[in-house]
Amino acid sequence: MLQFNIKTDNVEATPAVRDYIEKKIGKIERYFPEGASATAMVNLKAINHSQTKVEVTIPMKNLTLRGEESHIELYAAIDLIVSKLERQIRKYKTKVNRKFRDRDGIGMAFAAAENELRSQNEEAEDEDDLTIVRTKQFDLKPMDEEEAVLQMNMLGHDFFVFTDAESNGTNIVYKRKDGSYGLIETSSS
């Protein structure tokens, strides 16, 4: 079941807007297995009094769905977000199923998704010239480099930290300036 956490910034989330968000974004629940639950974190922001920016993040056990869209019309931005999230889910399921077609059960990794809150926001105190303004905590999931790159791209980030499924080590994939990808493998000495 999909829960909603709607935050606003210079935009009023009327009951009609909330209902529209829950109805439209709730449609992606059909991709979830029965009994799975997740929390959709929705942020609405006004940009220069002419556009509305909608950000949606849905953290789950094996996947984090994320999208953001800006549009003059709030409802149109919500529709665009739903399309983007559905494309991400289809892309992920296709890639996972193709990769694990011959392995029993692993191809259903997405179907086993359930709610897992990954991030906590905390403010840190100033420390000389170094100021940490946000702290996130998340579980490192075992996966291979290809899955990590896919997850990084779906989140829209430039790097992604993960546990390598084969070596059980903590690794980092990152996007290079030339558009290719890099891998940092860690080791304990």
Automatic annotation (TrEMBL):
Sigma 54 modulation/S30EA ribosomal protein C-terminal domain segment(s): 129-183
Alphabetical UniProt keywords: Coiled coil, Cytoplasm, Translation regulation
Coiled-coil segments: 82-130
Gene3D superfamilies for this protein: Ribosome hibernation promotion factor-like, Sigma 54 modulation/S30EA ribosomal protein, C-terminal domain
Protein location: Cytoplasm
InterPro entries: HPF/YfiA_ribosome-assoc (IPR050574), HPF_long/plastid (IPR034694), RHF-like (IPR036567), RHF/RaiA (IPR003489), Ribosom_S30AE_C (IPR032528), Ribosom_S30AE_C_sf (IPR038416)
Keyword Phosphoprotein in annotation: no
Superkingdom per UniProt: Bacteria
Annotated function: Required for dimerization of active 70S ribosomes into 100S ribosomes in stationary phase; 100S ribosomes are translationally inactive and sometimes present during exponential growth.
Quaternary organization: Interacts with 100S ribosomes.
Family per similarity comment: Belongs to the HPF/YfiA ribosome-associated protein family. Long HPF subfamily.
The protein, known as: Ribosome hibernation promoting factor
